[in-house]
Amino acid sequence: MSITTDTRQALPVGTWQLDPVHSTIGFEVDYMGGAFRGQFGEVAAKLEADGDKPVLTGSAKVAGVDIKDENFSAHLQSPDFFDAERYPELGYESSAIERAGDQVTVRGGITIKGVERPVELTGTIAEPLTDYTGNEKLSVKLDTTVDRTEFGVNWNIPLPDGKPALADEVKLQAELYFVKEA
Description:
The chain is mainly beta and about 180 residues long. It contains one helix and twelve strands, in the order E-E-E-E-E-E-H-E-E-E-E-E-E. Strand 7 and strand 8 form a beta hairpin. The longest helix has 8 residues, at about 70-75. The model is unreliable at about 1-5 (pLDDT under 50).
């Protein structure tokens, strides 16, 4: 005799707004044998879990990209990369969210340079807690990998051995802290 237990759980009910001060949305890409990292300073997100189909939406201003080199930051704004003048914002909207214990899978579409592609984010979700001011908070950590060339982010330069300086695969990481709306 075997017993099967469904461990899927609902998300905490409510509308949850991003706390941008404590949240980070970043990226990492292999560059000349090392890793190049950055994050977006101007971000917004909302998690709505009031019915059978919870939805996570988010955006990041391209102008808010934060890296350690001002010159390269300007290059990231150019058409070689994000083309901030024509596409000032990156976006995300979920189509499905599944939770099993503290594990969460979020499927949806990410939009970069006006191109939307499906993506699956995986990570963890914590149970809500009440902070010292009485606000109910929720944390979600997600990551995924995308091919930047699928979004028209094609810049590269060959190294002397003929290999590209910049990898196509980019790891996206989000550490999101939400505050429940009253």
